[in-house]
Design brief:
This protein starts with 6 loop residues before the first strand and ends with a helix. Helix 1 links the parallel strand 1 and strand 2. By secondary structure, it is an alpha/beta fold. It is built from ten helices and seven strands. It has one domain: 3-Layer(aba) Sandwich (Rossmann fold). A seven-stranded parallel β-sheet has the order 3-2-1-4-5-6-7, sandwiched between helices.
Length: about 270
């Protein structure tokens, strides 16, 4: 194994979800060797078979990865060494979403959100940074959320984890600015990748509809923005406008509007 040539790959977490699938498909079309990661071996195998029909000659690796499990992340390091893989692009796409009031949320759910979105993503990113050779380029794309930009009552823990991720990645970007590391934070609004998300978008009415951007478009443009070393990418013109307005809005008014809007949306979906 030591004498084998190093295989450079893009490591993609949350590969079996809607946005992850879009990234995997786009990378496969581009002829980029990938290491797809997710929590279901069955889904990973199915995705690998699907991608092989797009590009049968492409090297596609898979690894069952649970970001809430630190030992599992350590096992990934062993897997990379055993297969002589070098990650030259990391796409932090995996995430855990929880909605509803803090009052009614089980503490285990709140802590699981932190473990996956913050602890797991940071641990994985540090692992790949430590593996990086000093003279080689590393690209990092991290999927945060528009929710990272303000407090969100009734989606408080999710928004808070995404805010931490955004600030961590921006800090990392500065610290590694001279080390050939490109860091891009993507902050989309809701993406129609599951029935639950489709219901959430529908419950928001017209605002939900015009804020929605397809996962295919987000994946394609995120890769381009990262190539150009863009710090933050907000998909969708309406979402850019909302972000601009939020910067001009007093915090108390912003929290009241967001809390009222999300409470109405969740009431329509019977979420407490």
């Amino acid at each position: 194994m030591e004498n084998e040539k190093i295989q450079y790959v893009t490591l993609l977490t949350g590969a079996c979800g809607g946005l992850g699938h879009a990234f995997a498909t786009e990378l496969t079309k581009n002829g980029t060797p990938i290491l797809i990661c997710g929590t279901s071996e069955t889904k990973l195998t199915a995705l690998k078979d699907e991608l092989s029909t797009i590009n049968k000659d492409l090297k596609i690796f898979s690894f069952v990865l649970d970001l809430s499990n630190q030992q599992n992340i350590a096992n990934l390091a062993t897997f990379l060494t055993q297969h002589n893989l070098q990650v030259n692009r990391l796409i932090n796409n995996a995430g855990f979403i929880t909605e509803g009031s803090i009052k009614n949320a089980p503490i285990d759910t709140l802590l699981q959100t932190i473990k996956v979105n913050c602890e797991g993503t940071i641990s994985l990113t540090k692992l790949i940074l430590d593996q990086k050779k000093s003279d080689e380029e590393l690209k990092i794309i991290t999927i945060a959320s528009l929710a990272a930009n303000y407090p969100m009552p009734y989606m408080a823990i999710y928004a808070s984890t995404k805010s931490l991720l955004k600030n961590f990645m921006l800090s990392l970007r500065y610290e590694y600015r001279k080390d050939n590391v490109k860091v891009t934070i993507v902050t989309p609004s809701a993406i129609a990748t599951s029935q639950a998300m489709k219901d959430a978008i529908s419950a928001q009415g017209f605002k939900g509809k015009i804020s929605c951007v397809s996962p295919e478009k987000i994946a394609r443009k995120s890769l381009i923005k990262n190539e150009h070393n863009r710090a933050v990418f907000i998909p969708g013109g309406f979402n850019k406008f909302v972000n601009f307005i939020s910067c001009l809005t007093p915090r108390a008014l912003k929290i009241h509007f967001i809390g009222s809007s999300w409470k109405k949306s969740q009431n329509k979906r019977n979420i407490d």
